[in-house]
Amino acid sequence: MRQIRLTEVHPGMILARNLYSRKGHILLASGVRLTEVYLHKLRRLKVKTLFIHDESYADIAIPEYLSIETQQRALSILSSTMEKIHNKETFSIDSISNIASAIVEELIIQPSISIQLTGIATHDDYTLDHSLNCAVYTALLARSCDFTIPQIKEITCGALLHDVGKMKVDKRIINKPDRLTEKEFGIIKQHPQSGFNLLVKKRWELSSLVAHMAWQHHEKVDGTGYPRGLQGEEILNYARLLAITDVYEAITGCRPYRKAMKLEEAYTIIHSGLGTAFDEHFGNIFLSRMALYFPGMEVSLNTGEKAIVVSLCENTPRQPRIRMMTHPDGTSYSPPIEINLAENPHLSIVSTSHI
């Protein structure tokens, strides 16, 4: 199977993975042949990508960080918690803490700790997508930085809740399809303080460090962040991790006013911010683990050949194992051959398909 943009899907293609709503209901089941009626409904639901069956990719496994069950449980709990906060109702932290533990327990058994796009999307709520993706990326980064399991669970809980302050912001601003005005951005900038104020009241139920992650995730190590202009180690180490993954998730995900950036662009942005926006030590570890490619991605080589990424290599995530598909003249390899780019330094990837 392969993951492609909805705009590239056409009637007759077969769905390769169940498509779920944010409440965990199956919208379309794996194996369904897509029709124009289905595609029209998916466009209305703002579905971004689909996993499609393709014989050329049949044996290529696209990894899942989390089981569908854990994803849906996490999204349901997040949705319920955010809704209660928005409606000024009382909410419990226990369910968030429990799902954070479940997420970490699934992630730590993964053989690879390269940081790849999760593919997690609820299709109709950006804040939920962003919070869960940040939790996964931050947990993986914390694992790479040798934090203990209890610390990683605490960090994951904080990442899940880091944007709760946005529930105090008018949804018309959060979901605005254009760039924000200066006044609107000023309102958005209040969400770290609002999130801290909400979470610190729960200090008997969760670590105060979780509240400080919400407060500090927009601080920058050079002191130019907000809301307090903290510098360097004045910023909690948990928040310095989250500052990196928060930006990474934001720029690699779709926004109402722009498309997702390419992974190469995301790499450049994170790298250029080391020592100014981001903690240099944590940032370098993140970049060393950040995968620029993922299984099923179509790539072009410096030789003019085209290939498909088959799998990532643990120690060389930017030199994946690939399947050569076409020669420079466009004729097909018959049969296709597989090579490891790490063992063929004369070959390099020069461009990619982009989800």
TrEMBL record:
Segments forming domain HD-GYP: 105-302
InterPro entries tied to this protein: HD/PDEase_dom, HD_GYP_dom
Transmembrane segments: none
Gene3D superfamilies: Hypothetical protein af1432
Protein name: HD domain-containing protein
Organism annotation: Pelosinus propionicus DSM 13327
